[in-house]
Design brief:
metal ion binding, 3% strand, two-stranded antiparallel ribbon, 51% helix, 4 strands, LanC, LANC-like, globular, metal-binding
């Protein structure tokens, strides 16, 4: 995640006050003495103007981010504010949907921020699902179904989510043919998780099951069944054409791009499809990842986005929904002990925020996610 300008720090769920408020409100749900600190952070996140502009507001910034945290508090005193914010969120979501449908009608490839979890319509949809706004959520799902339809570009028939530029907007070098992104934060695993979660809550649109299967088939195509199965984070046009990857082995086991996030999205899809064979297969991939020292050694920090906290919390969510005979039912205690050892031996991040800071680490350690569902913003909770 990139640093955020100071003018936006107060309204950022990713790195700023909104994520810190989420931490303290989640703790206050089980410890009433924590409400004073929680209310202080809520005042901090609302003390300056809040963006609701379609170009800037996302689940992790602005009105959608603040509505998300206020709703997660479960506190009735914040409901009027959430209702006001929802009017703005509805308008900006409809604007972004209209732009996305025009882009598809014109047969252009998308940019990740159109559809992804962090910046796009998948994130806005996750917020709508959290607050039960099913009518507008169905419009988002309808768009995601369209996103899975193939798109012809420069002679190639790409999946509809193939992005016109590289992961950071690059249009030269190896990214001049765009890229395919598999991750849950910025890639197609995010839409997959939202489509599956909505289906499990009986929020459906025509073509939803077919869209889920299309994404699953694509992820199956790119799974590498080596000694330790894995998926790449991204694909270049050359890799997509030849089937040959520059990446030669598993990446770090992170929530954002790695095996844990990809497994959770596919497990949710398997649960939505009532497919126990697929469910067991992906659960075994995560168990294998956790038992692979080479993969665990790639974790370089304790954070929620791409470090130990993300691995622990995502694994806990997968294990909670796992089949009774899943190997994941026994791995969490040892994994938590290893995380505790890591925290004792390494300094805490200097950043205080959710995705790359201390708030996310604290939430991953706090055992109340089943009550607060704070991790709906990560598309982990059912």
């Amino acid at each position: 995640m990139s640093p955020i300008h100071d003018d936006h720090w107060h309204q950022s769920l990713a790195v700023g006050a909104v994520g810190i408020a989420l931490e303290h409100t989640a703790k206050a749900r089980t410890d009433p003495d924590g409400w004073l600190r929680a209310h202080c952070w809520i005042r901090e996140m609302t003390r300056k103007p809040i963006t609701a502009a379609p170009a800037t507001a996302t689940l992790f910034l602005g009105a959608p981010a603040i509505a998300y945290t206020l709703h997660t508090t479960g506190h009735p005193g914040y409901l009027p504010a959430v209702r006001v914010l929802d009017d703005h969120i509805s308008a900006l979501t409809q604007d972004r949907l209209a732009r996305a449908h025009r882009r598809i009608d014109q047969r252009h490839l998308p940019e990740p921020r159109e559809f992804d979890l962090i910046s796009g319509l998948t994130g806005l949809g996750a917020g709508l699902l959290q607050r039960g706004h099913t009518r507008l959520l169905r419009d988002v799902l309808t768009y995601l179904v369209r996103l899975t339809q193939p798109m012809r570009h420069r002679g190639d028939l790409f999946p509809g989510w193939w992005c016109r530029s590289g992961p950071q907007g690059q249009r030269t070098g190896r990214w001049q043919g765009g890229h395919g992104n598999l991750g849950i934060a910025h890639g197609i695993a995010g839409p997959l998780a939202l489509l599956a979660l909505a289906h499990r809550r009986h929020v459906t649109v025509p073509g939803q099951i077919a869209a889920i299967r299309t994404i699953l088939d694509w992820l199956d195509d790119w799974r590498r069944d080596t000694e330790h199965p894995w998926w790449p984070a991204t694909l270049t046009r050359a890799e997509w054409r030849t089937g040959t990857l520059r990446q030669h082995g598993p990446q770090r086991p992170s929530w954002c791009y790695g095996t844990p996030g990809l497994v959770r999205a596919q497990q949710l899809a398997a649960l939505a499809l009532h497919d126990p064979v697929r469910q067991r297969r992906v659960e075994h991939v995560l168990a294998d990842c956790i038992h692979d020292p080479a993969q665990l050694s790639q974790l370089r920090d304790a954070t929620l986005c791409h470090g130990w906290a993300g691995l622990i919390h995502t694994t806990a969510r997968v294990a909670a929904d796992a089949a009774p005979d899943s190997p994941l039912t026994t791995v969490l205690p040892a994994l938590r002990r290893r995380f505790a050892t890591y925290l004792r031996q390494h300094p805490s991040p200097s950043a205080p925020g959710l995705l790359e800071g201390r708030a996310g680490i604290a939430l991953a350690q706090h055992n109340n996610s089943l009550i607060t569902r704070w991790d709906a913003c990560l598309l982990l909770t059912t």
